[in-house]
Amino acid sequence: MTETITIRRPDDWHVHLRDGAMLKAVLPFTAAQFSRAIIMPNLVPPVTTTAMADAYRERIMAALPAGSRFQPLMTLYMTDDTDPADVVSGYESGRIVAVKLYPQHATTNSHFGVTDIEKIHPVLAAMEKAGVPLLIHGEVTRPEVDIFDREAVFIETVLDPLVRRFPGLKVTLEHVTTKEGVEYVTGARERVAATITPHHLIFNRNAIFQGGIRPHYYCLPIAKREEHRLALRKAATSGNPRFFLGTDTAPHARAAKEAACGCAGLFVAPVALACYAQVFEEEGALDKFEAFASLNGPRHYGLPVNEGTITLVRRPRAVAEDVSLPAGEAVHVFRGGETVSWTVADADSAAAAVA
Ligand SMILES: NC(=O)N[C@@H](CC(=O)O)C(=O)O
Ligand SMILES: [Zn+2]
Ligand SMILES: [Zn+2]
Protein backbone atom coordinates (compact mmCIF):
# COMPACT_ATOMS: atom_id res chain seq x y z
CA MET A 1 0.00 0.00 0.00
CA THR A 2 1.26 3.48 -0.86
CA GLU A 3 2.25 5.31 2.32
CA THR A 4 3.38 8.64 0.95
CA ILE A 5 2.46 10.73 -2.09
CA THR A 6 4.88 13.39 -3.28
CA ILE A 7 3.83 15.70 -6.09
CA ARG A 8 4.94 19.03 -7.44
CA ARG A 9 3.28 21.79 -5.40
CA PRO A 10 -0.38 22.12 -6.42
CA ASP A 11 -2.65 25.10 -7.09
CA ASP A 12 -6.35 25.59 -6.46
CA TRP A 13 -8.04 27.04 -9.53
CA HIS A 14 -11.35 27.93 -7.81
CA VAL A 15 -11.51 29.42 -4.31
CA HIS A 16 -13.86 31.71 -2.36
CA LEU A 17 -11.89 33.47 0.36
CA ARG A 18 -14.58 36.02 1.34
CA ASP A 19 -13.40 39.06 3.30
CA GLY A 20 -12.83 40.43 6.81
CA ALA A 21 -12.92 37.96 9.70
CA MET A 22 -13.99 35.09 7.45
CA LEU A 23 -11.01 35.68 5.13
CA LYS A 24 -8.66 35.63 8.10
CA ALA A 25 -10.17 32.37 9.38
CA VAL A 26 -10.26 30.40 6.12
CA LEU A 27 -7.20 31.59 4.19
CA PRO A 28 -4.60 29.58 6.20
CA PHE A 29 -6.15 26.31 5.04
CA THR A 30 -5.80 27.17 1.36
CA ALA A 31 -2.35 28.71 1.85
CA ALA A 32 -1.11 25.59 3.65
CA GLN A 33 -1.76 23.32 0.69
CA PHE A 34 -1.67 25.41 -2.46
CA SER A 35 0.98 27.69 -3.95
CA ARG A 36 -1.51 29.75 -5.94
CA ALA A 37 -5.27 30.02 -6.16
CA ILE A 38 -7.76 31.70 -8.42
CA ILE A 39 -9.75 33.97 -6.11
CA MET A 40 -13.40 34.21 -7.02
CA PRO A 41 -14.77 37.78 -7.07
CA ASN A 42 -18.31 37.27 -5.71
CA LEU A 43 -17.97 39.54 -2.70
CA VAL A 44 -20.72 41.96 -1.74
CA PRO A 45 -20.30 44.24 -3.63
CA PRO A 46 -18.51 42.12 -6.26
CA VAL A 47 -14.97 42.78 -7.49
CA THR A 48 -15.81 44.38 -10.82
CA THR A 49 -12.74 46.51 -11.64
CA THR A 50 -9.00 46.00 -11.62
CA ALA A 51 -8.70 48.66 -8.92
CA MET A 52 -11.09 46.67 -6.71
CA ALA A 53 -9.09 43.50 -7.41
CA ASP A 54 -5.89 45.28 -6.33
CA ALA A 55 -7.52 46.33 -3.06
CA TYR A 56 -8.87 42.81 -2.43
CA ARG A 57 -5.45 41.34 -3.15
CA GLU A 58 -3.94 43.63 -0.52
CA ARG A 59 -6.49 42.45 2.06
CA ILE A 60 -5.66 38.83 1.24
CA MET A 61 -1.92 39.45 1.55
CA ALA A 62 -2.47 41.16 4.90
CA ALA A 63 -4.48 38.16 6.16
CA LEU A 64 -1.83 35.57 5.21
CA PRO A 65 -0.03 33.65 7.95
CA ALA A 66 3.50 34.93 8.53
CA GLY A 67 6.03 33.40 6.19
CA SER A 68 3.48 32.13 3.67
CA ARG A 69 4.47 32.34 0.02
CA PHE A 70 0.90 31.86 -1.20
CA GLN A 71 -0.02 33.85 -4.30
CA PRO A 72 -3.62 34.90 -4.92
CA LEU A 73 -4.56 35.12 -8.60
CA MET A 74 -7.23 37.78 -8.89
CA THR A 75 -10.32 37.79 -11.09
CA LEU A 76 -13.05 40.22 -12.06
CA TYR A 77 -16.77 39.63 -11.78
CA MET A 78 -18.38 40.16 -15.18
CA THR A 79 -21.39 42.44 -15.29
CA ASP A 80 -23.43 43.83 -18.17
CA ASP A 81 -21.22 46.94 -17.87
CA THR A 82 -17.73 45.42 -17.64
CA ASP A 83 -15.22 47.70 -19.37
CA PRO A 84 -13.16 45.80 -21.98
CA ALA A 85 -10.27 48.28 -21.63
CA ASP A 86 -10.04 47.69 -17.87
CA VAL A 87 -10.07 43.91 -18.39
CA VAL A 88 -7.33 43.97 -21.00
CA SER A 89 -5.08 46.39 -19.13
CA GLY A 90 -5.65 44.53 -15.84
CA TYR A 91 -4.67 41.27 -17.52
CA GLU A 92 -1.71 42.63 -19.41
CA SER A 93 -0.29 44.24 -16.27
CA GLY A 94 -0.64 40.91 -14.38
CA ARG A 95 -3.09 42.30 -11.81
CA ILE A 96 -5.90 39.95 -12.86
CA VAL A 97 -5.70 36.52 -14.48
CA ALA A 98 -9.29 36.02 -15.66
CA VAL A 99 -12.90 37.22 -15.67
CA LYS A 100 -15.70 35.22 -14.04
CA LEU A 101 -19.13 34.94 -15.60
CA TYR A 102 -22.06 34.32 -13.28
CA PRO A 103 -25.43 34.12 -14.99
CA GLN A 104 -27.70 36.37 -12.94
CA HIS A 105 -29.18 34.57 -9.89
CA ALA A 106 -27.30 31.33 -10.63
CA THR A 107 -25.52 31.11 -7.27
CA THR A 108 -24.35 32.88 -4.08
CA ASN A 109 -23.97 36.64 -4.65
CA SER A 110 -24.80 36.54 -8.34
CA HIS A 111 -27.52 39.18 -8.37
CA PHE A 112 -25.13 41.52 -10.19
CA GLY A 113 -24.46 38.80 -12.77
CA VAL A 114 -24.87 39.00 -16.50
CA THR A 115 -28.49 39.24 -17.67
CA ASP A 116 -27.90 38.44 -21.33
CA ILE A 117 -24.74 37.05 -22.97
CA GLU A 118 -25.29 39.31 -26.01
CA LYS A 119 -24.53 42.28 -23.79
CA ILE A 120 -21.02 41.07 -23.08
CA HIS A 121 -20.07 40.18 -26.65
CA PRO A 122 -17.77 43.24 -26.96
CA VAL A 123 -15.86 42.35 -23.79
CA LEU A 124 -15.63 38.69 -24.84
CA ALA A 125 -14.21 39.76 -28.20
CA ALA A 126 -11.59 41.87 -26.41
CA MET A 127 -10.74 38.97 -24.08
CA GLU A 128 -10.41 36.57 -26.99
CA LYS A 129 -7.98 38.94 -28.70
CA ALA A 130 -5.90 39.59 -25.58
CA GLY A 131 -5.94 35.96 -24.36
CA VAL A 132 -7.89 36.65 -21.14
CA PRO A 133 -9.51 33.46 -19.80
CA LEU A 134 -13.26 33.39 -19.17
CA LEU A 135 -14.33 31.37 -16.11
CA ILE A 136 -17.94 30.25 -16.14
CA HIS A 137 -20.50 29.19 -13.57
CA GLY A 138 -22.35 27.06 -16.09
CA GLU A 139 -26.01 26.96 -15.12
CA VAL A 140 -29.11 28.48 -16.69
CA THR A 141 -31.51 30.12 -14.29
CA ARG A 142 -34.80 29.96 -16.18
CA PRO A 143 -37.48 28.85 -13.70
CA GLU A 144 -38.86 26.19 -16.05
CA VAL A 145 -35.53 24.32 -16.13
CA ASP A 146 -35.16 21.67 -13.43
CA ILE A 147 -32.32 22.41 -11.00
CA PHE A 148 -30.63 19.09 -11.83
CA ASP A 149 -30.68 19.95 -15.57
CA ARG A 150 -29.33 23.48 -15.31
CA GLU A 151 -25.76 22.62 -16.24
CA ALA A 152 -26.63 20.37 -19.19
CA VAL A 153 -29.04 22.97 -20.58
CA PHE A 154 -26.44 25.71 -20.10
CA ILE A 155 -23.87 23.73 -22.07
CA GLU A 156 -26.19 23.21 -24.99
CA THR A 157 -27.86 26.61 -25.14
CA VAL A 158 -25.20 29.02 -23.84
CA LEU A 159 -21.73 27.50 -23.59
CA ASP A 160 -21.48 25.76 -26.93
CA PRO A 161 -22.73 28.79 -28.91
CA LEU A 162 -20.30 31.02 -26.98
CA VAL A 163 -17.35 28.68 -27.57
CA ARG A 164 -18.15 28.66 -31.30
CA ARG A 165 -18.71 32.37 -31.59
CA PHE A 166 -15.37 33.16 -29.92
CA PRO A 167 -13.19 30.35 -31.26
CA GLY A 168 -9.98 31.65 -29.69
CA LEU A 169 -11.38 32.41 -26.24
CA LYS A 170 -9.90 30.46 -23.34
CA VAL A 171 -12.79 29.06 -21.30
CA THR A 172 -12.97 27.20 -17.99
CA LEU A 173 -16.23 25.47 -17.17
CA GLU A 174 -16.05 25.75 -13.40
CA HIS A 175 -17.06 22.96 -11.02
CA VAL A 176 -18.36 20.62 -13.72
CA THR A 177 -20.94 18.24 -12.23
CA THR A 178 -22.44 16.21 -15.06
CA LYS A 179 -21.50 13.55 -17.58
CA GLU A 180 -22.76 15.96 -20.24
CA GLY A 181 -20.22 18.49 -18.98
CA VAL A 182 -17.40 15.95 -19.01
CA GLU A 183 -18.31 14.83 -22.53
CA TYR A 184 -18.58 18.39 -23.75
CA VAL A 185 -15.20 19.46 -22.38
CA THR A 186 -13.53 16.27 -23.58
CA GLY A 187 -14.71 16.84 -27.14
CA ALA A 188 -14.55 20.63 -27.32
CA ARG A 189 -12.08 22.71 -29.31
CA GLU A 190 -8.68 23.70 -27.92
CA ARG A 191 -8.61 26.07 -24.91
CA VAL A 192 -11.75 24.66 -23.25
CA ALA A 193 -11.17 23.06 -19.84
CA ALA A 194 -12.96 22.37 -16.56
CA THR A 195 -12.34 22.29 -12.83
CA ILE A 196 -13.65 19.47 -10.65
CA THR A 197 -14.35 19.84 -6.91
CA PRO A 198 -13.53 17.24 -4.26
CA HIS A 199 -17.11 17.09 -3.04
CA HIS A 200 -18.65 16.34 -6.43
CA LEU A 201 -16.23 13.40 -6.64
CA ILE A 202 -17.29 12.12 -3.22
CA PHE A 203 -21.07 12.31 -2.86
CA ASN A 204 -24.13 12.21 -5.10
CA ARG A 205 -27.47 13.94 -4.64
CA ASN A 206 -28.75 11.37 -2.17
CA ALA A 207 -26.45 12.88 0.46
CA ILE A 208 -28.50 16.09 0.47
CA PHE A 209 -31.59 14.17 1.60
CA GLN A 210 -30.11 11.36 3.72
CA GLY A 211 -32.63 10.93 6.54
CA GLY A 212 -33.60 14.62 6.39
CA ILE A 213 -32.52 17.79 4.66
CA ARG A 214 -28.77 18.29 5.01
CA PRO A 215 -27.63 21.85 4.38
CA HIS A 216 -23.95 20.92 4.63
CA TYR A 217 -24.29 18.99 1.40
CA TYR A 218 -25.99 21.84 -0.42
CA CYS A 219 -23.81 23.60 -2.95
CA LEU A 220 -24.20 24.81 -6.50
CA PRO A 221 -24.19 23.35 -8.99
CA ILE A 222 -26.19 20.89 -6.93
CA ALA A 223 -24.80 17.35 -6.67
CA LYS A 224 -26.25 15.06 -9.34
CA ARG A 225 -27.06 11.35 -9.78
CA GLU A 226 -24.46 8.65 -9.17
CA GLU A 227 -23.75 8.18 -12.90
CA HIS A 228 -22.57 11.79 -13.03
CA ARG A 229 -20.30 11.39 -10.02
CA LEU A 230 -18.74 8.35 -11.69
CA ALA A 231 -18.18 10.31 -14.91
CA LEU A 232 -16.44 13.05 -12.91
CA ARG A 233 -14.20 10.53 -11.16
CA LYS A 234 -13.24 9.04 -14.48
CA ALA A 235 -12.46 12.44 -16.00
CA ALA A 236 -10.45 13.68 -13.01
CA THR A 237 -8.31 10.55 -12.85
CA SER A 238 -7.93 10.10 -16.61
CA GLY A 239 -4.85 12.29 -17.01
CA ASN A 240 -6.72 14.33 -19.64
CA PRO A 241 -5.09 17.80 -19.38
CA ARG A 242 -8.47 19.52 -19.77
CA PHE A 243 -9.50 18.58 -16.23
CA PHE A 244 -7.85 20.03 -13.15
CA LEU A 245 -8.21 20.84 -9.48
CA GLY A 246 -10.59 23.58 -8.33
CA THR A 247 -12.00 23.03 -4.87
CA ASP A 248 -14.79 25.64 -4.94
CA THR A 249 -14.22 25.97 -1.20
CA ALA A 250 -17.10 28.31 -0.30
CA PRO A 251 -17.42 28.99 3.43
CA HIS A 252 -20.63 30.25 5.01
CA ALA A 253 -21.31 30.65 8.72
CA ARG A 254 -23.35 27.76 10.13
CA ALA A 255 -26.30 30.06 10.80
CA ALA A 256 -26.41 31.06 7.13
CA LYS A 257 -26.59 27.42 6.02
CA GLU A 258 -28.73 25.93 8.79
CA ALA A 259 -31.67 28.15 7.92
CA ALA A 260 -35.07 28.16 6.24
CA CYS A 261 -33.28 29.45 3.15
CA GLY A 262 -29.74 28.19 3.54
CA CYS A 263 -26.77 29.38 1.48
CA ALA A 264 -25.15 27.20 -1.16
CA GLY A 265 -21.47 26.38 -0.70
CA LEU A 266 -19.23 23.96 1.20
CA PHE A 267 -16.10 24.77 3.15
CA VAL A 268 -13.81 22.06 1.79
CA ALA A 269 -10.40 23.74 2.06
CA PRO A 270 -9.25 22.00 5.27
CA VAL A 271 -9.62 18.56 3.68
CA ALA A 272 -9.20 19.40 0.01
CA LEU A 273 -5.98 17.58 -0.88
CA ALA A 274 -6.83 14.70 1.45
CA CYS A 275 -10.15 14.20 -0.33
CA TYR A 276 -8.67 14.35 -3.81
CA ALA A 277 -5.88 11.94 -2.80
CA GLN A 278 -8.46 9.50 -1.46
CA VAL A 279 -10.37 9.61 -4.74
CA PHE A 280 -7.24 9.01 -6.83
CA GLU A 281 -6.24 6.17 -4.56
CA GLU A 282 -9.69 4.55 -4.73
CA GLU A 283 -9.59 4.81 -8.52
CA GLY A 284 -6.12 3.25 -8.65
CA ALA A 285 -4.85 6.41 -10.31
CA LEU A 286 -2.33 7.96 -7.92
CA ASP A 287 0.03 8.18 -10.90
CA LYS A 288 -2.37 10.76 -12.42
CA PHE A 289 -2.76 12.85 -9.26
CA GLU A 290 0.10 15.24 -9.98
CA ALA A 291 -1.20 16.07 -13.46
CA PHE A 292 -4.64 16.92 -12.08
CA ALA A 293 -3.41 18.87 -9.05
CA SER A 294 -0.26 20.56 -10.27
CA LEU A 295 0.30 20.42 -14.04
CA ASN A 296 -2.93 20.68 -16.03
CA GLY A 297 -4.09 23.98 -14.51
CA PRO A 298 -0.87 25.92 -15.17
CA ARG A 299 -0.86 24.53 -18.69
CA HIS A 300 -4.41 25.78 -19.37
CA TYR A 301 -3.62 29.22 -17.93
CA GLY A 302 -0.20 29.52 -19.58
CA LEU A 303 1.57 29.83 -16.22
CA PRO A 304 4.73 28.06 -15.05
CA VAL A 305 4.32 25.01 -12.84
CA ASN A 306 5.36 25.52 -9.22
CA GLU A 307 8.82 24.81 -7.90
CA GLY A 308 9.12 22.34 -5.05
CA THR A 309 6.94 19.48 -3.89
CA ILE A 310 4.33 18.64 -1.31
CA THR A 311 4.12 15.30 0.48
CA LEU A 312 0.99 13.63 1.79
CA VAL A 313 1.37 10.79 4.26
CA ARG A 314 -1.10 8.07 5.15
CA ARG A 315 -1.89 9.22 8.65
CA PRO A 316 -5.54 9.06 9.65
CA ARG A 317 -6.72 12.22 11.33
CA ALA A 318 -10.01 13.35 12.76
CA VAL A 319 -11.36 16.40 10.96
CA ALA A 320 -12.53 19.20 13.26
CA GLU A 321 -16.27 19.89 12.95
CA ASP A 322 -15.90 23.64 12.73
CA VAL A 323 -13.56 26.53 12.21
CA SER A 324 -14.39 29.35 14.61
CA LEU A 325 -15.15 32.91 13.64
CA PRO A 326 -15.18 35.86 16.05
CA ALA A 327 -18.46 36.57 17.87
CA GLY A 328 -19.16 32.91 18.50
CA GLU A 329 -19.90 32.03 14.89
CA ALA A 330 -18.48 28.96 13.20
CA VAL A 331 -18.08 27.45 9.75
CA HIS A 332 -18.79 23.76 9.37
CA VAL A 333 -15.94 21.88 7.69
CA PHE A 334 -16.72 19.39 4.93
CA ARG A 335 -16.19 15.90 6.41
CA GLY A 336 -15.96 17.47 9.88
CA GLY A 337 -16.31 14.79 12.55
CA GLU A 338 -15.04 12.11 10.15
CA THR A 339 -11.58 10.65 9.71
CA VAL A 340 -9.55 11.21 6.57
CA SER A 341 -6.57 9.05 5.62
CA TRP A 342 -4.17 11.52 4.09
CA THR A 343 -2.36 14.37 5.82
CA VAL A 344 -0.09 17.02 4.35
CA ALA A 345 3.33 16.39 5.88
CA ASP A 346 5.40 19.35 4.84
CA ALA A 347 3.42 22.49 4.10
CA ASP A 348 5.17 25.80 4.44
CA SER A 349 2.79 27.91 6.48
CA ALA A 350 1.41 28.22 9.96
CA ALA A 351 -1.62 26.16 9.05
CA ALA A 352 0.39 23.07 8.14
CA ALA A 353 -0.75 21.30 11.25
CA VAL A 354 -4.42 21.63 10.36
CA ALA A 355 -4.13 20.77 6.69
N1 LIG B 1 -20.54 26.79 -4.98
C1 LIG B 1 -21.46 27.31 -4.20
O1 LIG B 1 -22.41 26.64 -3.86
N2 LIG B 1 -21.36 28.58 -3.74
C2 LIG B 1 -20.36 29.55 -4.09
C3 LIG B 1 -20.61 30.19 -5.41
C4 LIG B 1 -20.34 29.30 -6.59
O2 LIG B 1 -19.21 28.86 -6.83
O3 LIG B 1 -21.26 29.01 -7.37
C5 LIG B 1 -20.31 30.62 -3.00
O4 LIG B 1 -19.72 31.67 -3.23
O5 LIG B 1 -20.84 30.39 -1.90
ZN1 LIG C 1 -20.15 28.67 -9.11
ZN1 LIG D 1 -17.38 28.78 -6.61
From TrEMBL:
Pathway: Pyrimidine metabolism; UMP biosynthesis via de novo pathway; (S)-dihydroorotate from bicarbonate: step 3/3. Binds 2 Zn(2+) ions per subunit. Substrate binds at residues 16-18, 42, 137, 220, 252, 264. Pfam families: Amidohydro_1 (PF01979). The lineage of its organism: Bacteria, Pseudomonadati, Pseudomonadota, Alphaproteobacteria, Hyphomicrobiales. Catalyzes the reversible cyclization of carbamoyl aspartate to dihydroorotate. It catalyses: (S)-dihydroorotate + H2O = N-carbamoyl-L-aspartate + H(+). Belongs to the metallo-dependent hydrolases superfamily. DHOase family. Class II DHOase subfamily. Zn(2+) 1 binds at residues 14, 16, 100, 248. SUPFAM superfamilies: Metallo-dependent hydrolases. Zn(2+) 2 binds at residues 100, 137, 175. GO terms for molecular function: dihydroorotase activity; zinc ion binding. InterPro entries: Amidohydro-rel, DHOdimr, Dihydroorotase_CS, Metal_Hydrolase. The keyword Zinc applies. GO terms for cellular component: cytosol. Homodimer. Keywords: Hydrolase, Metal-binding, Pyrimidine biosynthesis, Zinc. The modification N6-carboxylysine is found at residue 100. It comes from Chelatococcus composti. Residues 12-312 form the Amidohydrolase-related domain. The gene is pyrC. Its EC number is 3.5.2.3. Its cofactor is Zn(2+). One of its GO terms (biological process) is 'de novo' UMP biosynthetic process. PROSITE patterns: DIHYDROOROTASE_1 (PS00482), DIHYDROOROTASE_2 (PS00483). The active site is at 248. This is Dihydroorotase.
